[in-house]
Amino acid sequence: MEKPQTDHHSSLFLTGTILLANMDYSSLMDYAVKALIGGAIWMGFKIAGDYISEKTRKK
Q1: Percent of the chain with pLDDT over 90
Q2: pLDDT at position 2, please?
Q3: Percent of the chain clearing pLDDT 70 (strictly above)
Q4: What's the CA gap between 8 and 18, in Å, rounded?
Q5: What is the pLDDT of residues 25-42, one digit of tens each?
Q6: Phi, psi dihedral angles at 22 (to 5 degrees)
Q7: Nearest to 43 by CA among 32, 31, 54, 51
Q8: 43: Cβ contacts below 8 Å, ≥ 6 apart
Q9: CA-to-CA distance for 53 and 47, rounded, in angstroms?
């Protein structure tokens, strides 16, 4: 009699499904929006800092 083979991916998929089923999606969406806004602000400051740095380096 053969033992049924368990696939690593299927057990990982099952674990992920169980974890995602218990998530609060409204707070996750709030976090995602805040992260995108924060990332955009950080990118703006980074680009402005690089521009000012390059401008002062050329003088």
Answers
A1: 42
A2: 58
A3: 88
A4: 16
A5: 788 889 999 999 999 999
A6: -95, 10
A7: 51
A8: none
A9: 10
* Secondary structure (DSSP) of 31-46: HHHHHHHHHHHHHHHH
Residue 52 has which token pair? 């000012």
In eight-state DSSP terms, residue 7 is P
- Torsion from C-alpha of 39, 42, 48, 53, nearest 10 degrees: -130
Residue 25 Cα distances to 18, 19, 46, angstroms: 14, 12, 31
CA distances in angstroms from 14 to 4, 23, 44, listed in the order given: 17, 15, 40
| pTM for the structure as a whole | 0.55
Tell me the CB-side half-sphere exposure of residue 19, using CA atoms within 13 A.
6
